[in-house]
Design goal:
The complex is a heterodimer of chains A (about 240) and B (about 270). By secondary structure, chain A is mostly helical. Chain A contains 10 helices and no strands. Classes of the chains: A mainly alpha (about 240), B alpha/beta (about 270).
Chain lengths: ~240, ~270
Amino acid sequence: MNLRAFFYGLLLQWKLDIRSKTLLITCYLVPLLFFALMGGIFTAVLPDAGDTLIQSMTVFGVTMGALIGLPPSLVEIYGSDIKKVYKANGVPEFLGLALTNISAFLHLFIMSCILYIAAPALFGAQLPPKPGLYFACLALFIAVSLSVASVIGLGVKDQAKTSMFSILVFLPSIMLSGILFPAALLPEPLAWAGLAFPATWGYRLLAAPSFQPETLPPLLLIFLGSGALSFLLLKRTLD
Amino acid sequence: MTPAIVVEGLQKAYGKHQVLKGLNLRVNRGETFALLGVNGAGKTTALTCIEGLRPYDGGRVQIQGKMGIQLQSASLPGSIRAIEAIRLFAKWNRAPVSAPLLEALGIGPFARQQYSRLSTGQKRRLHLALALLGEPDILFLDEPTAGLDVAGRVSLHGQIRRLQSQGKTILLASHDMAEVESLCSRIAILAGGRIAFTGTVAELHARVGRQYNITLKTDQGTERVASENIGETLLALLTHCRERGATILDIQVDRGSLEQHFMKIAGEECK
C-alpha cells in the first residue's frame, strides 16, 4: 500500500467534496438549516425535546448526508469510465470507495460536532452525559450509515435512479426512527419495519442515558451485511 | 527484432457473441503498430484484453516492458483539476511529475482548470500525460484523436512522433486511415474476430492494390481507366490523345487509397 499516495488521495477527495455542491448541501446546509428550524419548533412545543435534540438532529443529519450525499460520488466513479482510468493507470480500484467513505465520514463528524456545540447555545439542549461514549457511538453510527449508502451508490448505475433509491431509504429511516415522534406511537408493523434501518438503532444508541449494548448487534449486522454486499457489488462493477 | 507484445490465439466472447476468434499479433520493440478495424470489429476488446484490463477466454498475451494506457473512453471526476489528477496518478505510480512532459503536452495553460471545463483535446492530452507518467516502454492508444479538431489532431500526432523518436513501442487502435498511414510502421486489420492482414502499408498496397487507377485530363474531357499494366495502358492513352489532337492538362496515377484496400480486406473477411 502506497500510504503517501493514499493520504494525498484522501486530501484531494476532501477538497473535491468541498467543491461538490451535493455534499455541501446534504452534509452541512440542509441538516444545519433543519436543525435551526426544527430545533426552535421542537423546544417550543415540547419542553422535554431539549433532552434529545442533539441526538435527533444528529441522526437526521448523518442519515441525510450519508444516504443522499455519498451515492452520487460513488456513481460518478463506478458508474462511469473513471474506474477504468484508475485501473489503467495503476490506481487501486477500491480507492474511490475508500476515499469517498472516509471523506464523507469526516464531513459528517464535523457536522455532528457543530450540532453538539450549537444546540445547547441556541436552544438550551442538554449535552449527552458521557461525551466520550457519545462520540464513539456517533462514529459507529456514521460508519453504518455510510455502509448502507455505499450499497446504493455501487448497486445503482445512474444518478437519477440513485436519487430515487436514496430517498426510498432516507424517508422511512427518518419517519420510523423515532427522532420526529416517539416510535412507541407507530403502528406495530411500522415500528417493526423501522428496526431495519440504522437510524432507529443509531438514535437509540445515541439518546440512551447509558450505554445500551443491545443496540450494537443490529448495527454491526447492518454494517457487516452492507460491507459484504458492497464488496460483491464492487467486484461486479469492475469485472 | 525483439517483440514487445506477443499475442497468440486470443479469444473473447460476450455471451454467445464471439468477438475474438484466436487473434495473433506480434509488435516489435520500438515500432508503432496500428490495429485497424471497422466499428464493432473488436479493436477495443482486443486492446483491453492485451492490456490486462479485461479477462479473456483463451490464448496467451506476453508483454515485455512497462505499459502506459490511454483508453478510448476515459473520464475523471468533474471537479478535479488537471494538475491534481497528474499528481494523484504520479504518486500512485511512484513517479515524479515531469515538468518537461507537461510542457511537451501543453498541459500548463489548463493545469489548474477543472476536468469538466476542459475541451476534448485538452482531456485527450491530459489522459496521454497520465499514461506517460510512469515512463512506460509500451504505449497503448485507443482512438487517440477521435473527436478532435484538425489542430488537436496535428498537435497529438506531433506528440506521438516525439514518443516514437524516444523509442517507445506504440500499439494504436484507429479507423483513421490517414493517421495510420502517417504514423505507423506496420498495421494489422482485424475482421471477423481474426487478423486478416499484417504488414506494412506498402505490403497492403502490393497485396490488394494490383490495379492502377489512371485519370487523364485533356482539353476534350477527362478519362478514367483502371489497369494492371500501367505502361501499356498509359502508352495507349497518350497515343489516342495524339491521334485526336487533344492537349493533355493533367495525368494522375494511384494504386487506390489505404481506405479502399482496408475496406476490401475487411469486407472479404466479414463475408
